[in-house]
Amino acid sequence: MYFALRKTTKFVPKVGLYTNKFRQLSSTANSTITGAAANEFLSHLGINKLPTIHYNLSYDNIAEHEEKNKEGKWITTKYGDVYGIDTGKFTGRSPKDKYIVKRAGTESEKHVDWGKVNQPMTEEVFNELKNACISHYNNAEKAYVFDGFCGANPVSRKNVRIITELAWQHHFCSNMFIRAKVNDTINELANFAPDFTIINACNVSNPKFKEQGLNSEVFVAFDVEQKLAIIGGTFYGGEMKKGIFSMMNYWLPLSNIMAMHCSANLGKSGDTALFFGLSGTGKTTLSADPHRLLIGDDEHGWDDHGIFNFEGGCYAKTINLKEENEPEIYRAIKRDALLENVYTDDKDGKHIPDYDNKTKTENGRVSYPIFHIDSIVPDSMGGHPKNVIFLTCDAFGILPPVSLLTPEQAMYHFLSGYTAKVAGTERGVTKPVETFSACFGAAFLTLHPTKYADLLQKKLKEHSAHAFLVNTGWSGGGPGVGKRMSIKATRACIDSILDGSIHNVKMNKDPIFQFSIPESLNGVPANICNPRDSWEDKNAYDEQRIHLAHLFKNNYTKYQIPGVTDYSPHGPLV
Question: Is 284 one of the catalytic residues?
Answer without folding.
Answer: yes
